[in-house]
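Reviewers of the previous submission asked for a worked example of the structure-prediction workflow described in the proposal, so we include one complete record here. The input consisted solely of the amino acid sequence. No template or homolog information was supplied to the procedure at any stage.
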Amino acid sequence: MDLMDCLNFLKRNGIDVADTEVIASAPKQFPLVLKVNTIEHKTEKNMVKVVHCRDFFGPAFGELSEFGEVLGQELIHGIELILGIQRDETFGKVVMVGAGGTFTEILKDVSFRAVPLTHADAKDMVSELKIYSALKGFRGKKYCLESLERTIMCLSKIAEKSDIKSLDINPFILNDKRGVAVDCRIYS
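From that input alone, the workflow returned the following structure tokens.
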């Protein structure tokens, strides 16, 4: 599966994903994020570019197209989280939520639960995070926790009904209006 396939899978299963399309020429709307259509880690390999205006599109597109097909994605601002499904030897399939983005490995701020989950489980998972104080609202910023909890519940349902070995959404960007998957990796 490539990134577009993964995002479409999430969308079919009720998870909000960033508007994403294959790009062949300069789009009409900026800013946008250009990224290579792969499930590889993109940041370390310089496979993601934020393009703020048409003048910077050509060079960014040219650089990324050397790696493969290029996707254009809406630019979403908010706090970056990681969500996922994993198989645990003891507990079976588990859902995970945590601080995301490029600092996931450094912060190690995650919570796990075995499926199936209840809505109370989803709320508890979020409240266990060290970043929960920020997620509740901090210095005038608010985040749509309902969207995050709804996405956790969708992942629980996916884990119950599929043979997926692992699924990582990183980042899942949460702001005051919604939570949106912008990158995903799925292994069957």
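The two ends are 9 Å apart (CA to CA). We consider this example representative of the routine output the project will generate in years two and three.
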